C-alpha cells in the first residue's frame, strides 16, 4: 500500500504536466519520451533493482485500440518455472500509473489474471513479474485509448453509490479439489478517482476508490491486491485458485474512506 | 407519452406575447450581417425540406475527419411564423456557421432556440455559431453534468482531428428540460421530451405536431450502426414508448433525412435485441468481456455502415449492464 501511495503523490503532477505539454512531436520523439517516462516510473517504483526482459514469461493481452477507455480489459498470462510472488501492473501515462500490485498467496494459481482498467492517454502498459527469489521481469504493450480516467462512473453519482459493496463471485460449474480453477470476482464500487466533476456542486467528486482486496480460503491467503485509481468502476477481477478441500472463500474489500465490504462464498458453490 | 405529446402540442401563445418578444429580442438581429463564406470555407451546406418548414442536413456516414468537418450527424431547423429553432447545431464551429448561413438564406426570422439533443460532439459543437443570436440553448436536465464531465475532452479531441481553434466552444444549455416542455415558434409548438437513459443519459427528442414530425436525435439510427452510450435496456424502453406516437415522419440522428415511423425503428430494435440477448448468453456462459466483444452480434455485421467502428464498444457497454443482472 505504501509504495502505491508514494508513487501517486510523486507522479501525479508529472503526469498532468507532461500530457499537457505534448504538442504532436515526431514519432521518434514520442517513442523517446515514452521510454523516458518508463525509466522515471521504474526508478520510482523499483528504485535501482534490475528488471529483466520478461518476454516468454509474461503475456499481456489487451486491445490495441480500446473500445471503451474507462473499461479496458487486460489479461495477463504468466509462465516460467520459478515460483511467482507477485505482479505489478503499470499504466505509464495514467495519473496514477501503478494500477495494481498483486501478491499471490499459497492457494493461488498465479498463471492467469484478468482485470479491467481505465486508460487516460495513449500509453504503454507494463507488467512486472516478481519471482520468489526477488527477481523482476517485465514486458510492455501499447494501448491506444484516451479519456478513461475522467469518464463518468455511469450517469450520476447517486446511482453509482446505490449498490456499493455488493460482491459477486463466479466459480466454474465443476470444481475439482486440488485442481486450479478460475474465479471471477465482481465488486460494485464506483471507484471515483477524483477526476470526475459533479455539475451541481461544480466540484470534482472526491476520490473514493478501492485500496485493497484480500481473498482468503479458510484463513489462508489466495490473492492480495493493492489497487489504485486506474481500476475501472465496478471492478471485475479473475484469478486462479486451487481449492484444497471444501471450505469458504472470503473476500474483503477496503476503500480510501476505510469502508470495508466483505462476503464469504462456499466452495464448491451450494446448489440453488 | 404520446398523450402528453399531443396535449402539450395543442398549447398556444397569445399573439400579444409573441409581438412583445419580437420587439424585445428580434429586431436587432434581423439586421445582423451574414458572415462571409470565405471565413469558414466554401463548402455549401445542403438541406432538404422534409415537411413544411422542417429542413434537415444529412450527416455523412463517416468518422469525424478534417475533410468532413465532423458534419456526420443530421442537423435540422424548424421555421415557425415568428422564429426559428435549430435542432442539433452541427459538429464543429464552421459546420454551425454553414448551417446558420443556410438558415439565413431561407429566412430572416430570429433564431430563438438551439436544441441540443444530447452530449455527443457531432451534434452540438456547432452551437457556438449561434451565440450572437442569443437563443435559448436547450438541453436535457442531465446535459450540463455530461458536458462538465466530457466537454473539455471532446473539445480537445476534436481540435486534434480538425485543427487548433476549429472545434468551437463548449456551450452550456441555458434552459433545461427535466421531463417535458413546449416552445412556440409562432403557431408552431414544439414539444421537447427528456428521455430516460437510452442512447445516452441525456437524450432529448422534439415533436412538431404541426407537421407530425418526430426529431429523435440519436434515439434513432438508420443504416448507420447505432452507438450505445447509455443503457441498452433503457433504449429499448424509450423506443417502445416512442413507437406509440402517431408521427407521419421521423428524423434520425444518423441516416436519411426523413423516414417513416415507426417502421424505421425496426432495424434498430432488432440490433438492440440481438446484442442484448447474445450478451446475456455470453455472461451466462461465463465468457469474459473481450470474448463477448468478438462473438456477440455477428449476424448484424453487413447490415450497417461503420459497424466495426462502434459495434465492439456497444457490446462492451451492454456487457457492463447485464453482468450484474
Helix-strand string of chain B: HHEEEEHEHEHEEEEEHEHHH
Mean pLDDT of chain B: 88
Largest sheet data of chain A: 9 strands, mixed
Q: Output the number of helix runs of chain B.
A: 9
User: What would you call the structural class of chain B?
Assistant: alpha/beta
Q: Give unreliable regions of chain B as ranges.
A: 1-39
Rg result of chain B: 20 Å
Mean pLDDT of chain A: 85
Helix content of chain B: 25-40%
Largest sheet of chain B: 7 strands, mixed
The strand line-up of the biggest sheet of chain B is 1-2-3-4-5-6-7
Per DSSP E runs of 2 or more residues, the count of β-strands of chain B stands at: 12
Oligomer, anyone? Answer: heterodimer
Computed structural class of chain A: alpha+beta
Helix percent of chain A reads: 10-25%
How does the overall form of chain B come out from the CA principal axes?
globular
Q: What is the straight-line distance between the termini of chain B?
A: 28 Å
Low-confidence stretches of chain A: 1-25
Question: Key features?
Answer:
heterodimer, A: alpha+beta, 17 strands, disordered N terminus, B: about 325 residues, alpha/beta, seven-stranded mixed beta sheet, globular
Q: How does this structure look, described?
A:
The complex is a heterodimer of chains A (about 270) and B (about 325). With about 270 residues, chain A is of the alpha+beta class. In chain A, about 15% of the residues lie in helices and about 40% in strands. In chain A, the strands form three sheets. Chain A has a nine-stranded mixed β-sheet with strand order 1-8-7-4-5-14-13-16-17, covered by helices on one side. In chain A, a hairpin with a 6-residue loop joins strand 4 and strand 5. The longest helix of chain A is centred in the first third of the chain and has 20 residues. Chain A is globular and about 55 Å long. The N terminus of chain A is likely disordered. Chain B is of the alpha/beta class and about 325 residues long. In chain B, about 35% of the residues lie in helices and about 20% in strands. In chain B, the strands form two sheets. In chain B, strands 1-2-3-4-5-6-7 form a seven-stranded mixed β-sheet, with no helix packed on it. A five-stranded mixed β-sheet of chain B has the order 8-9-10-11-12, covered by helices on one side. The longest helix of chain B is centred in the middle third of the chain and has 20 residues. The radius of gyration of chain B is 20 Å and the shape is globular. The relative contact order of chain B is 0.13. Chains A and B meet through strand 11 of A and helix 5, helix 8 and helix 9 of B.
